[in-house]
Every structure is written in C-alpha cells, then in structure tokens.
Design brief:
Elements lengths: L7 H15 L3 H14 L4 H13 L3 H14 L4 H17 L3 H11 L3
Length: about 110
C-alpha cells in the first residue's frame, strides 16, 4: 500500500511512525503521524496509518473516524480504501455491529 507522493520530510516521519508502531510505541507513532499530518493534512495514507494506530490502542471510534477521513481523501487508491474498510469492519465487529461489519467487508472486497 504505497502512499501517493509525499514530501521527503513527511516520508521520513511516516517511516519513523511505522517503526514506532511495530515496536509497540503507539503513543509515539500517533504523535509522529500527527506531526506529519500538520505538514500534509490531505495525505490519505497518513490518516490510514493513524487509524491503524488508534485501532491498536483500542480507540475504536476514533480509528473508524480516521479511516473514513482517509477514504474521503484516498481518490484512486484502491488498496488504501480496502485497508480503511478493513479497519472499519474490525471496529464494527468488535462493537457488535455484525451487519455494519459485513457491509464494510463487502466494501473492502471492492463491492
């Protein structure tokens, strides 16, 4: 899921945030992504990554909102949209919204 063109500084921040996320430093990853978003607030990839971090932190409502925002900015990035719908489906399923989860999974599959 390669992001669309980002400024080099933003790419560096995104890479650092991913390293932080993978080592379990979710607070650091979120702060790094928020910094990158201050530079490029229209970058759908960054909103997606922040949604993933919030999901891993157990902040489902925020993760869902961030994934939806990423989808709104994603344009013609089907892999990114699929990942966002996967996040939304996970959150809906965790909250007991099985119908909503199935709908999100259908959208993730391109339906």
């Amino acid at each position: 899921m390669a992001p669309s063109a980002m400024a080099p500084a933003v790419e560096a921040l995104a890479a650092r945030a991913e390293q932080q996320r993978q080592t379990g430093d979710y607070g650091g990853a979120a702060a790094t992504l928020e910094r990158a978003l201050r530079i490029e607030p229209q970058q759908a990839y960054l909103w997606n990554r922040l949604a993933r971090v919030r999901l891993e932190q157990g902040q489902g409502t925020q993760a869902s909102n961030l994934a939806a925002r990423s989808n709104a900015l994603a344009g013609s990035q089907p892999e990114l949209k699929q990942n966002n719908w996967d996040i939304i489906a996970t959150i809906r399923r965790q909250s007991g919204d099985v119908e909503g989860a199935v709908e999100a999974e259908r959208k993730a599959a391109g339906g």
